[in-house]
Amino acid sequence: MIALTLPIGRSRRAGHDVLISTFNLNGTLATAQLASDVLGVVNPLRAYLRSLAVAVPVSAALAALLSFLLAGRLLKPLERLTRAAAAIGKGGNLRAALPGADRGDEVGRLAGVLQTSFGQVAEVREREETFTYAAAHDLRSPLTAMKTRLQGALSGPRSETELREELTEVLSDLERMRRLSEQLLLLARGERDIVRRPLDLARLAGEAVDRARELAPDLSLEFATSGVAWISGDEGLLSPLLDNLIGNSLRYGGGAAMQMTVTGTPSGVALSMADSGPGVPAAALSHLTTAFYQVGAARSGQGNGLGLAIAQRVAQLHGARLDLALAQPSGLRVTVTFPQATNAD
């Protein structure tokens, strides 16, 4: 109960905040009294804040603990994958299986990508090892021959004729090494080494045919062109490609007739080199562009198994496609298809 005779102003009575004020009501002095139970609002609010003060830290700690446990569970496969990848890097076995590659989640996809990448690196490394071994073999042969000839020339008296013969053989070995070194450099060329400009492939092919005929006047080599044969390319790389295609047919075609054609179409320019020689076994077609590969022959003589490997590399650098097929009724056909380019003139 709140007395009605309280003084004007704000006061605390019976657990209530009481506000009393006077005002004029139609010429009559009146008194207004307002009582409010603030504690009924404040006390629940205080209780709520106290509960928050306890619940929020507990909830945050619980959430942190659950997050830690969940993260640990999720990161365990990633940790195993990391350790396995590190072990592969140290051990060098790039074809070893990675844990989690069979999973269907993000970790599994990551393991699959890593395993595929490691496999590709292993394949490149194996090719490089084979290539290095074969290159060392081909370089060692002329070096050994040169050493033997020079030791023979220095072992005792030699006539001028004998010395000239020895030096001629040494020069022949040096020339073989020079050609091999140039071919190895061609195989090592990268995209950044290409200087592209519009070129008439028919003109370049005709010049290559003329060079071959000058070296071998009795060469049975026909040449034909049709259509527009402009491509975008590097003449310094395309000339060795043409020379190697002709040289490959000349070397392994058994002296049979050969034909080079250049055909321009709206979709591209096709360069074809075919011979009517003995050809190769069908099973060997997929290996002919492998460096130092030779069909059924020891690695000797003038050839070194790099001609078609260089042609394949030059084609790749120009965005072209190289196809090998058995000619009919016999022989081998090599076709390189280039993207068409607009005549710069």
From TrEMBL:
Matches recorded under Pfam families: HAMP (PF00672), HATPase_c (PF02518), HisKA (PF00512)
Domain HAMP, residue spans: 72-126
Keyword Zinc attached: no
Keyword vocabulary terms for this entry: Kinase, Membrane, Phosphoprotein, Transferase, Transmembrane, Transmembrane helix, Two-component regulatory system
Catalytic activity of the protein: ATP + protein L-histidine = ADP + protein N-phospho-L-histidine
Domain Histidine kinase: start-end pairs: 134-342
EC number(s) stated in the UniProt entry for this protein: 2.7.13.3
InterPro entries documented for this protein: HAMP_dom (IPR003660), HATPase_C_sf (IPR036890), HATPase_dom (IPR003594), His_kinase_dom (IPR005467), HisK_dim/P_dom (IPR003661), HisK_dim/P_sf (IPR036097), Sig_transdc_His_kin-like_C (IPR004358), TCS_sensor_his_kinase (IPR050428)
GO molecular function, one term: kinase activity
Compartments, as annotated in UniProt: Membrane
Matches recorded under CDD domains: HAMP, HATPase, HisKA
Residues annotated as transmembrane: 47-71
Main subcellular localisation: membrane
Protein name as catalogued: histidine kinase
